[in-house]
Automatic annotation (TrEMBL):
Top-level taxon in the UniProt lineage: Bacteria
Annotated protein name in UniProt: Neutral protease
Any GO molecular function: peptidase activity
Organism name: Sulfurihydrogenibium azorense (strain DSM 15241 / OCM 825 / Az-Fu1)
Keywords: DNA-binding, Hydrolase, Protease
Residue span(s) of domain Cas12f1-like TNB: 65-140
Length: 210
């Protein structure tokens, strides 16, 4: 009897937070002008049938991520937004400036133009170090939207700076502190690492332009 009560409480707690997370994410993306949401599906499929131990199973494996995706799809539909699940293989192991489609087709690590080591991605094109999960997120967008080049981002300097600076949020921060304005990075703060005109001088705008 006690197990049933705890199980029902857990389900209500997850549903409540999943609704809040889905609403916040969809509202945030809608307010910032996004029309499509791309979700990597491998992380969800890879935990099917696995056993990572009692504690990890409780913290990760037993979480119904498919339920969260369905809620995101439902709430996105209210705004006329589309949700697309994307095969995320090689996305966190490939430079944002490399041909991700060639990598996925050939499975040639040399084409990745970089190497992942834990949470770190060492980009050989720019000779910079990025966060691997952020690189993966960018490449999931590229694969989903079939984008070879990076001109979809209006400020490439800010774009690359964001790849170096992951933000870890608690649920309470996501619900009450994150807004479209809070996600913006002031250009004056980051100018030293990426001098003015570095993209143009390096030729990346010509190589990866539209």
């Amino acid at each position: 009897m006690k197990k049933k009560i705890l199980s029902a409480h857990r389900k209500r707690w997850l549903d409540n937070n999943f609704h809040k997370i889905a609403r916040k994410l969809v509202d945030l993306l809608h307010e910032t002008g996004h029309k499509t949401i791309y979700i990597g599906k491998n992380a969800i499929e890879s935990k099917n049938g696995i056993d990572l131990g009692k504690k990890t199973n409780q913290d990760f494996v037993s979480i119904p991520f498919r339920r969260l995706i369905k809620l995101i799809e439902y709430k996105a539909y209210e705004y006329g937004m589309e949700v697309i699940e994307v095969d995320e293989s090689y996305t966190s192991k490939t430079s944002p400036l490399a041909n991700i489609f060639e990598v996925k087709e050939t499975k040639n690590k040399e084409v990745c133009q970089g190497k992942r080591d834990g949470d770190i991605f060492k980009d050989k094109v720019l000779n910079k170090v990025f966060h691997a999960d952020l690189v993966g997120a960018v490449n999931i967008i590229r694969v989903g939207a079939k984008l070879l080049r990076l001109r979809f981002y209006e400020n490439l300097k800010t774009f690359f700076i964001k790849l170096c600076n992951p933000v870890k949020l608690k649920l309470i921060d996501l619900f009450y502190k994150v807004s479209p304005e809070s996600l913006r990075i002031g250009s004056s703060r980051w100018g030293a690492s990426f001098p003015a005109g570095w993209m143009e001088k390096s030729g990346y705008l010509n190589t990866f332009g539209t």
